[in-house]
Amino acid sequence: MTDYQPAQIEPKWQKFWEDKKLHQTPDKSDKPKYYDLVMFPYPSGKIHMGHVRNYAIGDVIARYKKMRGFNVLHPIGWDAFGMPAENAAIQHQTHPAAWTEKCIQNMTKQLKRLGLSYDWTRQVTTCQEDYYKWTQWLFLKFLEKGLAYRRQAKVNWCSNCQTVLANEQVIKDHQCWRCDTKVEEKALEQWFLRITDYAEKLLLDIEKLEGWPEPVKIMQRHWIGTSVRVG
Ligand SMILES: [Zn+2]
What we know:
With 231 residues, the chain is of the alpha/beta class. It is built from seven helices and nine strands; from the N terminus they run H-E-H-E-E-H-H-E-H-E-E-E-E-E-H-H. It is globular and about 65 Å long. The N and C termini lie far apart (64 Å). It binds zinc ion. Zinc ion binds next to loops.
């Protein structure tokens, strides 16, 4: 038996799949639907083994369901907005948009080489207008309903990253998870969403989650509880 030769075998079949549009999901189909959503990567520039582990699992599920006769929607996109892009751009002395675009191109090439069965025609990029027009639309709906409001509040601030950190991003001895700088408290005018109005409903509905491990449910309860106290 000859050894597996990935450099020959994989490009051959990846091209075959692409030519046959095998991973494109039709809008209409008689098959039962299956939605297989993986977490969109942040375009930092390189795919690492953590991505590979995560996306291989999603891909196994997509392929299994496809073989079982489902019309599988397995999309991919880029969680591409925010301060990290701006900081990286400063570091590389370029524009955040140019830097992000370059990272996306490189990571797309890497994901394609892994042979993952995404429908690339449905790719979304959160820093592009065709995507963020919907987050803006959603925000205006919150505003109209009085669920978005402004006030001063103390935040976790990293003076090195020049960014606000979520509580989960403050680690060890009150340090930034990215750069270990001591996190300061800073009062900033900011937008809030009145999710606390829904805390009771969220807590009650956790009971309806079937098949969720108890520790995860407990974490959810704690998270909602904490939000109620702070908000
Ligand atoms: Zn930092």
